[in-house]
Design brief:
The structure is a homodimer.
Chain A lengths: L6 E2 L12 E9 L3 H7 L9 E2 L8 E11 L9 E7 L3 E4 L8 E2 L17 H14 L6 E4 L7 H10 L3 E6 L2 H10 L4 E4 L6 H8 L4 E6 L3 H9 L1 E9 L3 H4 L10 H6 L3 E4 L2 H21 L7 E5 L4 H7 L8 E5 L2
Helix pairs in contact in A: 2-3, 2-9, 5-6
Chain lengths: 326, 326
């Protein structure tokens, strides 16, 4: 897999009359969804990780510093977060539909937070849980890939909403992290429980009200079988399918009918524009008050982007996977 | 399948101090969901179709006349609709959770309407479409099993909401009915279009916004593949699975995520209590104004319940399947 990537050196051309902003990227977000984009043709062979910017390159969320700007909206020295690229420098052309958010440097959060807990990962967890799943106090919440960048936040947010939360992950260390550090009520290693339906029955004797699905496949089937009436499933990812290792879910639609289950696909950018200010305020407070733990997994240097990306699919990473640039 | 049923003669015991109401059933509702109840053990072997009432018997929606009442809520001569049974007479014990609705005989609708278009079939179509799918004018709506008791109403209701509506069914006569009598914009015979994905692409070049699913299986997969962003799927039935003839759907959850599709199971009784008055008023007006066509398919006599039920699974019935009792 790492051999599928190529890091290229290319020249960036910024000019004062281009309307463009030149951003020196500081942290790159490494997310599983890039794998789909590759499979679906949104990222094509030939799009490369560049030491400087020149399309075609792999677009991704990142945080950086403006080093030159031909746009009145941004000035040199601004810290920004947005859809930039897997590269050292990005040329960004602002438009009504393409904006970077300015990072509040006075908030004294590490810069990296702005592409994780305060960026798309956090927004996906927050919007998906609160807008789609609408947790009520006392409800039972199940989170898969719970030690991942989004799952870990979903579980913590659900605890703050007064829910009973169980997560699953693929190693003992991750399971311990969920229980000991992230405050999950319980957690289990799905690799040691091949009968997922029975496992969920044990962890949820009274059924599941909300399932935040990051994996799809058999886990989705097992969760549906254990859901309560009016259960809600937020479908965030299908990592079991990304690499072809797992098979697709064959959900029992009779369960969906009889239990009037809602299954809904979620996407951070649905919530970002209208709820970002609310989200940012709430999560910032939670972090400051120590109510949300931030777990990051940082690799160094552009050269390590391919290895960092591969880690997402081999169960090695814990929390938000980032690459810190020089 | 007919041989799986047994019609038994049994004695009904009603007494004036029982609190019970004795109802002479006039029309019985024949619905595919009974098949699930049998498969799931909600209807067990030994539960019979009775010429008089004695549990265990097969419970179903029906309309009838009160012939004796030991309840202050009902009087002899009242026409009622509710969850009664596949039998000539039902002993009904009213409680806060078990009620029959009194049928408005002055409305001059045929009695049978109260278990079809003005009963659970109508409520399923109305609640499922308007409460779950929320159609907007101009949206594209696909209905499967569109010549069935619910599908035919969903399509007509969606047309009244200003949508573009295409239905599918399994015979040319049904397809003609959808187009010529029920006002669907288009319709097709799915048996003549083995590549359902391509068929839906042809009928919906701009994609599907709402899919009202009565069949599940490959049709659900094909609909999801053709859905637009923010598409909604109301899951009402999975008739392709009931008899084991079709295979279960293997939906592409990546489609669900990327298109933020909502899939929701529906059930008439979720809408019945709170929206029945609104529903009844709206549908009554639509029928009187000729805006909704009522298609019924009536068999005669309790002895024909088994054959009527089997028709649902062999593609023979059109519209609401009923049995009229003597």
């Amino acid at each position: 897999m790492e051999a599928d990537f190529e890091v290229k050196e290319q020249t960036t051309r910024w000019s004062p009359d281009s309307g463009e902003v030149l951003v020196k990227n500081l942290y790159l977000s490494i997310d599983p969804y890039q794998h789909n984009r590759m499979k679906r043709g949104a990222v094509l062979p030939g799009q490369v990780i560049t030491h400087n910017n020149l399309s075609p390159r792999i677009v991704s969320y990142a945080v950086g510093e403006v080093v030159a700007s031909a746009s009145p909206e941004y000035a040199a020295g601004d810290m920004v977060a947005g859809v930039l690229g897997w590269e050292d420098y990005t040329l960004f052309k602002p438009s009504p539909t393409a904006r970077m958010s300015k990072v509040d440097a006075s908030a004294s959060f590490p810069l990296s937070y702005h592409i994780g807990v305060l960026g798309t990962s956090g927004m996906t967890a927050y919007g998906g849980l609160f807008e789609v799943c609408k947790p009520a106090k006392g409800e039972k919440v199940f989170v898969s890939a719970a030690a991942g960048s989004i799952g870990g936040l979903v579980g913590q947010f659900a605890k703050l909403a007064g829910c009973y939360v169980v997560g699953c992950a693929g190693t003992k260390a991750k399971v311990d992290l969920l229980k000991d550090k992230l405050g999950f009520d319980d957690a289990f290693n799905y690799k040691e429980d091949p009968d997922l339906k029975s496992a969920l029955k044990r962890y949820f004797p009274d059924g599941i009200d909300i399932y935040f699905d990051n994996v799809g496949g058999e886990m989705l089937e097992a969760a549906l079988a254990n859901m309560n009436i009016y259960g809600r499933v937020a479908v965030c990812g299908v990592i079991s399918e990304y690499t072809g290792a797992g098979r697709r879910a064959v959900p029992d639609m009779l369960d969906v009918i009889y239990k009037r289950i809602t299954i809904r696909g979620i996407y951070a950018w649905d919530f970002m524009p209208k709820r970002f200010a609310e989200f940012y305020g709430v999560i910032s407070d939670w972090i400051r008050q120590g109510k949300v733990q931030v777990i990051e997994d940082v690799s160094d240097g552009l050269e390590n982007v391919p290895a960092a990306f591969v880690e997402l699919f081999t169960g090695q990473n814990v929390g938000k996977k980032l690459v810190k640039l020089a």
